[in-house]
UniProtKB/TrEMBL annotation:
Residues 52-142 form the MobA/VirD2-like nuclease domain. It comes from Noviherbaspirillum pedocola. This is Relaxase/mobilization nuclease domain-containing protein. It comes from the Bacteria. Pfam families: Relaxase.
Length: 444
């Protein structure tokens, strides 16, 4: 058994439709047809259609050799182990996985579709990020399950994943017939058709493995001659790599690895590969299992840090401290005559209209600030309530029967529309608040 990464889905739910189609990519009818092993088709499609990112989902394949027989219960256990290992700390209410079983090619294959989005926070999720840590996690995962099921181990070799997948998926009889028909020009033409550099690297590794096993290439010099005969140009030769410009291309691609080393002997590498242990000893299994547990702890802590829901903080507008000046005391004028002084005291004090309007204006400003703050808090509470309702509805949708799905999806649509309106209202209120704060300086 081997778990491999297939691709990142960028289109709509067409890939899901293909997994359940009656015919395969070559137009051959699938017999027996595809079988849903785990997950929800409608939920998977819904999450893909409502994901605005370019990369919407990840596709993986669990491939078993022809002689490796597994039950549906064992397959479901392995799929759950994939979730526990690569999505550790994030349950089914946050990361959606669809598992589809294919047996029409003679062996068992389980195709996994994992949505690249955390349903709770809406953040992008990558179950298998690039790097050596993820590669080692995948290798240890496969090693543990092959040991538990009593299957032969997938032995690593200098031809990397291409050789391993080729060796694991194709039975010996079919492989010998295939290698006898290998054609150099067709192989190089296949390289030209793969525009992506990673695909070209993988294809060249596969072609090298096939040519070596067919006895056409024995060392790196033979490989260089093989490529130059087919219009490939070698721009640089390192101790463990070759830089190659493929036909019709301008930039060189660096091919690095055991099969590209300067003093490599392909026959000895194949001999080492064939004599490598196909089963783990008990002490080896304990070591691999401990390493897998350690990697899962690291991944769980990383997920807890990245995908922890953040509390929403309401930022109120800053108000400047108001300085109140003490009123100036008016010194009495002793020189004022008694009659004038009497008139002055009798005359009623009339407050100017300007002062009244200023105080009224200040009062209205304070009142409006208080109202807007309370309204902002109310809107934030409403937004939080709607988001909680959406999370609950997504969980209900994943477990709901077909008769209730349309009703739940309609509620989700209405709540998402309501959430958009509230968020827009919150933005407008904040803009108005900031403009008011800039325009008016509170003075008493």
């Amino acid at each position: 058994m081997i778990l491999t990464f297939v691709n990142k889905g960028e289109s709509g739910p067409e890939g899901i439709n293909y997994l359940f189609s009656e015919k395969d990519a070559n137009g051959k009818e699938r017999n027996p047809p595809a079988e849903l092993l785990e997950g929800d088709i409608l939920l998977t499609k819904y999450l893909i259609e409502n994901n605005s990112r370019i990369k919407k989902y990840s596709s993986y394949a669990l491939s078993f050799r022809d002689n490796e027989k597994v039950t549906d219960e064992q397959l479901k256990e392995i799929v759950q182990s994939v979730r526990d290992t690569f999505c550790t700390g994030l349950g089914s209410d946050r990361i959606n996985i669809l598992a589809v079983k294919h047996t029409d090619k003679g062996n068992t294959e389980v195709h996994l579709i994992i949505n690249d989005e955390d349903m709770l926070t809406g953040r992008r999720f990558n179950p298998w990020p690039p790097g050596e840590r993820s590669q080692k996690l995948q290798q240890d995962f496969c090693a543990c399950w092959n040991h538990r099921l009593g299957f032969e181990q997938v032995v690593s070799n200098p031809f990397k994943a291409s050789f391993s997948r080729f060796d694991a998926k194709v039975p010996k009889e079919r492989r010998k017939k295939f290698l006898q028909k290998i054609d150099e020009k067709e192989a190089v033409k296949a390289l030209e058709e793969n525009k992506d550099s990673n695909q070209r690297r993988e294809k060249l590794s596969s072609i090298t493995a096939e040519a070596v096993m067919a006895g056409k290439i024995n060392n790196r010099n033979d490989l260089v001659k093989f490529l130059e005969r087919n219009n490939c140009r070698i721009t640089r030769k390192g101790k463990d790599y070759l830089s190659i410009i493929l036909p019709g291309k301008e930039k060189p691609i660096r091919f690095k690895g055991g099969c590209f080393k300067e003093d490599v002997d392909y026959r000895s590498l194949i001999a080492e590969h064939n004599t490598a242990s196909k089963h783990l000893r008990p002490d080896q299994f304990r070591k691999v299992e401990a390493r897998l547990d350690e990697a899962m702890v690291y991944k769980r802590e990383l997920h807890a840090k990245i995908y922890a829901p953040k509390e929403k903080k309401i930022r109120l507008p800053k108000t400047e401290s108001v300085k109140i000046k003490a009123p100036q005391q008016i010194k009495p004028n002793n020189k004022v005559k008694p009659k004038e002084q009497r008139k002055q005291t009798i005359q009623p004090v009339v407050k100017s209209n300007s002062n009244v309007s200023k105080k009224q204006k200040n009062f209205n400003n304070f009142r409006s600030i208080g109202i807007s703050s309370s309204l902002g808090t109310h809107i934030a509470e409403k937004i939080g309530s709607v988001e909680l309702q959406l999370t609950a509805l997504y969980t209900q949708l994943s477990n709901a029967p077909n008769s209730k799905r349309a009703e739940i999806e309609q509620k989700i649509f209405e709540l998402k529309f309501q959430l958009t309106v509230l968020q827009q209202q919150q933005i407008e209120d904040k803009k108005a608040e900031l403009n008011r704060d800039k325009k008016d300086k509170f003075k008493i």
